[in-house]
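task queued by scheduler; priority normal; single chain, no ligands, no partner chains; default sampling; output format set to structure tokens
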Amino acid sequence: GGGWSYTFTNLDTLQDGTLTLQAAATDSFDNPATASDANLKDTLATLEIQELPTGTSDDVINADEQSAAPISGTSSGIEAGRDVAVRVSDAVTDIDLTATVQAGGGWTLQADISTLLDGPITVSASATDAVGNPASDSYGFDKDTLASVTIDAVATASADDLVNQFEQTSVTLTGTTVGVEAGQTLQLNLV
């Protein structure tokens, strides 16, 4: 008997799943010979980072949320137990984390991003399935943890920062805000 070889140059048109190869030959005496072999075609793996969950639906992580920023996603074709490499980055610093694909394809983690700068934050995730097919995705949100309010000296007629009986009917307060957007409410309490 002799060996044979054939190279398939394009299997793109065949769907993922079981592919059965069948071979048939006849010798010079018309004796038939057949063989078949099943192989699995697995070329698909996807990964998707989900939007920030309810409560952070503004795509902004604030000071209260920065120590446990929720990052999650879904996958398809990536087996449960596989690692998802997650990188959370600002313009200067990267934080590398690992999540694990759960049954059903979901994955989740909480990232402490308190060391990252305020501004645009990029999350990138990547994984491979058991046969090495890569999948990746990226997502962006903003981090805004800075806000401050200052109160200037109390403006009184005598400019002494004291309110006397003649000035108590008209006292003007002024100040500045930093990191507070126009249209936000400033609450004043006099105690």
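post-processing summary
- Residues 48 and 74 are 5 Å apart (CA to CA).
- The chain has a mean pLDDT of 89.
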